[in-house]
Amino acid sequence: MTRTRSLASGLLTLSAAAMLTLTAAGGASAAPAPSDGNEAPSVASVTLDAGAAADYWTPERMQGAVPGDTLADKALERGNRSNPALVEKSKPSSTKATKGKPTLAQSANPVSHIGKVFFTLGGTNYVCSGNAVTSTNRSTVATAGHCVNEGPGAYATNFVFVPAYDNGAAPYGKWTAKALYAPTQWASNGDMTYDTGFAVMNPDAKGRKLTDVVGGSGTAFNQARGLTYTSYGYPAAAPFNGETLKSCTGTASNDSNNPQFNTQGIPCDMTGGSSGGPWFIGNGPDGLQNSINSYGYNGSAVMYGPYWGSVIETTYTNAAKS
């Protein structure tokens, strides 16, 4: 039986309630009316205390952050359209390499605009990956939907982005989020088709905006299927330790196990913690971003990512101009 191996932490979703109060270092997020995907998707703004969130993430807390596999599993439980028989919850991939055995994921030098995402949900600290993208506000980070919202459930708090993280070093500092965005289809139903989120970051202590400091990737939407991609991330579950950047390159093919997700996969065995890491068209980190690391299956070393169509483009547009 083919079973899923989830990679990342949970997306934020809003219930039908008009307001959700966050208890960690943050404010309140409004729950706008759902959209059918033809209008601007529902989004929520979470106001965070920049100093509190940055100070919260000590080296010890970063080191102890949990890869978000369990949150992605819970999102699948709560209403995803996959066959429940295909879901394996909170277990490591059976394809993981043992010590000394080569992996498909290759070591990569740090990239200024790619980094680790840290956040808190349900009193637990989690880690994902993310990438700074070009935007009108010069402050937007792309990641997985399940790394900003449980899908459905709570929104993340203490959300920070650490560009070019490498063995504990944070050469560009820790950037705190002031707003989180996800498609309604993710926030309301945890639909893996739309597992993408965007975070808008606060300026740093010098008043500089994120992409003015670290640069950013262009984005592409509604592209042809079957392109060649290079994905990046910080896999933290065994056999990796999350301390250095990894990458995979390959030609995308459709997910035949759950075709309703409309996702594509490339050969890659990165594990939990890599969720939300960027997919670039072509080879290397200089191409246009066109997806993110989302999920995989036990017994198959393939990483799947959502197709970035019009709904995700609208979500990006709303985040980028905020």
Automatic annotation (TrEMBL):
Gene3D superfamilies: Trypsin-like serine proteases (2.40.10.10). Keywords: Signal. The keyword Signal applies. InterPro entries: Glutamyl_endopeptidase, Peptidase_S1_PA, Peptidase_S1_PA_chymotrypsin. Residues 1-30 form the signal peptide. Residues 78-107 are annotated as: Disordered. This is V8-like Glu-specific endopeptidase. It comes from Pseudarthrobacter niigatensis. The lineage of its organism: Bacteria, Bacillati, Actinomycetota, Actinomycetes, Micrococcales.
